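As promised in the previous annual report, we have extended the structural survey to additional targets. Below is the entry for DNA replication factor Cdt1 C-terminal domain-containing protein.
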Amino acid sequence: MSTQNTRKQTIPIIDLDKISQEDELLPVVRSILLYTDTFLLKNYANKSSLDSLISHLNDSNNAPDTKQQFDANFTGTLSINNDISMEQYIYNSEPDLQFNRTVNNPYLQKLSSRLFKVSLFFSQLCLKSIVQNTTLQNTLSETNFATKLTRYHHERGNLEKVSVNGEDFQYLFNHDFINHTSAGILTVFPIAKGIKYKPPTASIDDNQWTSIDEPDCLLFHTGTLLSTLSNGLHSTSPIQIDPSTNPIHLTIFPPLSTPLNGNKKVSAELLSQQIKEFPQVAEKFYNKQSHQLILQQKLNLYKRLFTTSETILSLNSMSRVSNIAPELHSLLPQMSNMMNFKIVQDDFLKLLTIWPQAYIIEANSKCELAIKLPQIDPLMALSNKSRKLQFAEMCDLWYLNHYDLDVVPKDVPPLKVNKRRGSIDNDNMDVSSPSYQTKRIQSPTKQKNYIHNKKEQFIYKEKQHDSQSNLLDRLRERERRSAALLSERQRKYQEFLSVKMSQVFKILISLNWNEPYTVTHLTELIADSLQNSNNPIGEYEAEEIIDKLQSLLSDQISCIVVEGGLKVYKWDQLKSDKFESALNEFKEKAHETNIHMDV
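The corresponding structure token record, generated without further manual editing, is:
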């Protein structure tokens, strides 16, 4: 076994030329699965045959039949976008559970047969490596199995060709990755290219991916079923697939009626994964199950949010000097940073819908919502269960009360709070929920300020008639204030773009240099990458930032306009120190310009 470094990450490689006997593979596979969920296979004897079959399938004559839509079994053909279509077939060896649609393309049949043989061999090794139950180890054989074959077809290929000044060149077009979670034992990809996986050191929630570019190797990725059968010895994570580069993969399962923990079967595991991967199809055929899965995902998110809120509020209560409760909107950025996800006020109020007594929510003198932890008796705290466990039980109870309704909700509704303060004599503030009332914060001065009208308000002074010059002066003053306000807004907007320029530069420097990229591809990529940041940007702002970077680094970043007005960017190897110096110079010039405008 050897290793390969990809962006300072390590992916295991099994080199078959260095393996003399099959028995040597078992300890190698076991050591890999205890460390990661992805590995490569090098020097596979039939690799050239697989590549030849894939090249035939990429031909337009072997395109999938787009008229064959997805059915309730998630088999058939599905259009991903205007250029990419997907076909999928599921086979089960058991006669009681068969699927009507079968593979008719001869090239796809041969490719599926060869992928099945190699995936069956390594799947059996995986089961023997980390599954201790011998019965479960023997659930997979040449006669007892199930497979899911997925194929993507790109109508126009990976690259688009354009002509500029008589010179032809190609640029990446619609280079989007699709999230994929394998539900089986093992998934095999005949081309180890156009795939991103999570390194072992990264959390599942982190937006951290490692690219794989080894077209001479096969790639194997473990599924959630293997993780379940291992009883905690192995864990797996999602991967990302570029359908235009990596068109085919095959996933292998035990027979679909094989029982798992409890009353669940392999078929239920596969159905759950397909509902998550194809929500549009699930809405049509499995509406209730689809809503149940979405609700489960939301409740899992709120469990994480509650843990984050507990941490932030506890730290806040220890660090502040006064007893004034912090305003909710001031805590949201901290929650977003810890969650790596944009958290808004409604997300927090959904926690109170699940558990109304979790926090004390108050309206302060500014009519802003303020949050603080409830008072807990120390003696009760010693005997009671933890708040995190209590909230988890509340989430499970909320799900049990709603999952079997005629219309299953997709999300928890936020608690509706009336921010308007009541009269001074009333210490309670109305909330739509009858079981919960929020308290307003007492005024720092305990003096009662009764509402009354002063007599001076009803004594009107004689209106003085302004002269023509006074009217002109007021108009000039109003125009000057409007111009100053507009200038201030423009200055703040430019400062915002300057901050985002550093983030966009990091995205550009992570891409392959000396390759052309369309403005459409770059703006979509940048907007998607920054959508979970505290201040996300749209495609219009992304294009403006790219143009600014191109003007700052014109000797490194080039831009040409092809037919139809489409911008295509290309850059040499970018250097951070040169960008920092150019950005500082740009900020200094902008600062001098603002001073001159103010004068």
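The chain has three domains: 2-285, 289-359+374-402, 479-598. The chain has 16 helices and 22 strands. These points will be discussed at the next consortium meeting with the crystallography subgroup.
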